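Researcher: First entry.
Model:
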Amino acid sequence: MAAIFTPPKLKKPERLADGGMSFFDGAFIAWDKEADDGAYTSLQRFSGTSPWTTKGFDSAPTPPLHWHLYQDETFEVHEGTLVYIIDGKQGKLTAGQRKTIPHRVIHTFWNDSSEGKDLLVSITVRGGPHSGFDKSFVLNWYSHLNTAIPAGQMPNLLSMFRLMAAHDIVLARWPVVGRPANFLIGHLLAGKLLSFPVEDRQLQD
């Protein structure tokens, strides 16, 4: 139990020659892409055959249902099929299609791997007074998942709330207490009292 109060030592993702970050033995790869007008784009590939990325909502890299305080988010599918839940409604996007989720709207997504095809999707976010969902969040969030889940463990709860609080992302599981939980657990407890870092500097080496 005491381990929850200590920031975990994270496994670094494999860095590919083209700049990609490889997680879950290559089942999930993310690239940082330049975007216009201050936006940030994460290009992400989900394997259509790996057990890490073929369990739908329960796949290891699938984000929990969440919402962004300030950022609008756009999915643009390049290959494969993306399944989404947006505001409680499920749908699909195929190659060439895109969809924008306004801030404060609950959502998540995953690869439709029913035909064994990879999903390649650009995720672009815009807006907000802070960086929000950005390359630092992608690196740290998925490094936490990639460290804990293959080891049969849960990611460190305090670390995850610290990240969400710092990047204006709110879990939808607790719609009423999500923002207070970010402040109390992520900002005050993990950040101020226990000095959990927002970024794990060793991942930058």
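Researcher: Second entry.
Model:
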Amino acid sequence: MKTCFINNKYLNEKNITYQYTVNQVKVFEAIRDNKTTCLMNICEEVTDGTRVKREYLDNGVKIINISDIKDDEIYPYSLKCISKGGIREQDYVKEGDILITAIGRSGKVAMVPYKLQDSVISSDIIKIRLKDEIKSKSIFMFLQSQVGACALDALKIGNLNRISVRDIKEMVVPIDYVDPNIGDENIINNNQKANKIFEECVEIFDEFVPQNNINYKMNNKIYINTKNIDLDRLDAQHYIYFGSDLYKLIQRNTSNIQWQSLKEVVEIKRAERPKMEDDDFINYINLSNVDSDLSVIKNCNNDKTKNLSSRIRYVLNENDVITAKSGSATGTKNHISAVITERYAAMMASDAFYNMKPMKINPYYLMFLFKQTIILKQIETITIGQYFKTIARIDFEGIKVPRIACEDEISEKMKAYVKCLEEFYIKKMEGQ
């Protein structure tokens, strides 16, 4: 049995749990050479968010929920809106505020970018606003480090992993922290830089395809000619789609947009595993290895051929694009897609993906499209199954993609976007 003696200075009479004590030891040992202070001493305010009843609107004040915070970033493209009624001044955030999730998947940290200031936060998120804006990045760097994660982990209470505003105020933090595993602030900013690049791509694309002006709701009633009825598709959603504005849009070419079916621009590979020796070590990718929000491969798995699932079948080539063909997130904002970069070429992938070889379209533009509502809504309408959704190959090949004049510009930006995020994940793995 392993034991260790804990110095009295690490003990807290208000919290004598093993988790709290061990994490406190790790934190204080890691920052003992730093000048420290209680967080409340350098903060203008530490508060949680709005408790107003949430009725989501098409327009209003953007609200940041726990699910919108991932990998030290706020994912801006899925934010919902609520009415201004009942919102307090302290519920709003501004650039440089630090946010911490306080329940469930608690302890996730993000910093508010300029474009999201004047949004509000939900009640299960804690906002930290420092008196000195220059110190915000140092505190943010500490909280997102392994040491900071231990400090936040120590504060979690109960089955819901709740973190209280009071505990955040009383947290001891180093005043000028530099993460020894990261050090270079440029690496920390990679994720923010990538988000900015992606926003620029969306702005360019929306000039040609104004997605927010499209009514994606389907008509409740539509008349279908019997010759158009597919006996393999008797679900109402499939046919109601034919009366939607989306369907009408993708059937009509204009001077600015030409629509092509997916099968015209890519080759969809067959899921055929090559012959391999049982003891060969194989690097491979599953759905879980792809960040569903950012559409970039985070890492890969490794095992002997004889231990691999029978679903590991594709050999990946550089510039292939993979996208999920099944799962509950198929066709939603969390639909999984990624482009294969040099780092992941020659690895293998699960047949839970469709593996596309772009023939007449830039792979980075194609990956960008698979993050856009105009494509995701098409995927949503062709999925089969209520709980575990699947896309049939014939329906997948019929997805319409927009061809516009600025594809090359978007492609170059998306290439830079992927490079930024790969560097972010590589550095993160090295730090672990």
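Model: Note on the second entry: The mean pLDDT is 84.
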